[in-house]
Sequence to fold (557 residues):
Amino acid sequence: MVPFLGLWGVFLAWPVAYGVYISLFDWNPLKGSKFVGLANYIQLFHEERFWNAFANTFKFAGMTIPLIIGLGFVFALMIWGWGRSRRGMALIQSVLFFPYLLTVSIVAITWKWLLDRDFGLLQHTLNRIFPSAPVFLTEPAWALPAIAFATAWWLAGYRMVVLQAGLEEIPRELFESAAIDGARARHQFLHIILPLIKPPLLFTLVLTIISAFRTFGQVLMMTEGGPGRSSEVLALYLYWVGFDYFQVGKAAAAGVVLLVLILILTLIGVRMLGLKSELQ
Amino acid sequence: MNWQKGLKRILPYLVMYGIAFLWVIPILWMADTAFKPEREIFHIPPKWIPSHFTLDHVRRLFSEWPFLRWLLNSLIVSTSVTLGSLIVSTLAAFSFARLKWRGRDVLFMILLVFMLLPWQVNVIPLFFTMTKFRFLNTYQGVALPMMAMPIGVFLLRQFFINIPQDLEDAARIDGCSSFGVLMRVIIPISRPVFAAFGVYMFNFAWNEFFWSMICLRKANMVTLPVGLKLLQGAFEIDYGLILAGAFVASLPSLAVFLILRKQIIRGFTLAGSGMKG
Fold:
């Protein structure tokens, strides 16, 4: 118990409290810090760049969460419903899952290259098929969607695996008796699959929400927040402010905002998951 | 009539293999670029089959960059994170699951919330804490916060709680202390869950990017994910080198995945279903 609490206290719990503390100061470890109260927050809330990052974070989450979960669910249903030969399914499952094991830099490098405006394979192919296709990473409106798609390629496989395990747990007899009663595929989906898949589906949802809100590496390495600031998300904003401009107090304040945001979303998720009842 | 039936039968396979094929293209293209001569990388239209294969980019990776060192760093960090978090999480999970003390459930609830917080929230203060300890640019600096992640405590507690009380009672009658119960009863029967958590943790540490990038700033100390960032940052358009780096860096994951595919997928599923509670 003690070793864990020690580590956790020093490296995770304490910094959060410390972060709230820092956010109230004009922090400068060399010249001494000055208590400024909520000035950092006020400054933050008056900054257009912060709100831009804030909006981009939600935009990105709005695109990437349905993409990741939708693809993961469709893949899971596909393998579960159509899978006949074990080896073929194992192969398909592996291929769809494998990107998840790669680190974010590999994903970003690969997709940046696929979408390179002059020499990218995907960009070129799309331009061939649709002459009016956008140049993804250099057009402000299309940079975030492109990153969202790359993220889905990366993460959907894990959701697939979790959901597929959930589907396997549904007793097959349920479908047989439903078929005898003349239930159609759509009804089977709505009345058998959906209710029974709810727990893992909600779990993947919480997981995906959190990962969407902390997105950092893909954006840093694919666009650096550009073009302009069209793909700058909160995590990236915090990084620039804190480690590039050394406005530590302000970055800490942004961290607290992110904390509150994730806390709210998490509590909603925890309630939905019913983790609370499990504790008692 | 007949071909319609036939089509209906093979259509699912066409769709599934089609999607799988699309999914693997980025990886194939990455590998392809890594071994193409410079001139053919920047060729319009893009060319799949190069006139000849070249090891040029890979060679430069190892001669001009401390790529091996990065690999070693990653290995050291990931291994110590995995072992360290296994040890501390087991102890904590045991205490949460099998011992009774005041404030236990409240503390666990707090941990649960922390489990879901990302690095960005506490990275600035963490950075200062590490500066104070002089842990920046060290293995312990990058590894210790990862070991402290509550997810392992949560997963293992879940498993420990379901171990029958009878087993513990029997051991206690035979004179085991709490620690004895943990060592002789709990740990031996928890192997599968340790394996699952180990896989999860190793992969997490191996791929961790944000904190590693902030904590490790010397080119010699960085782990692979951050090293790739350095490659990309140094020569934005040297795609042969960058993609060779990405390709070589993904080989260990690929190799381990090919050997332990079943265990890895099962491990991740277990980690997932363990958390759903």
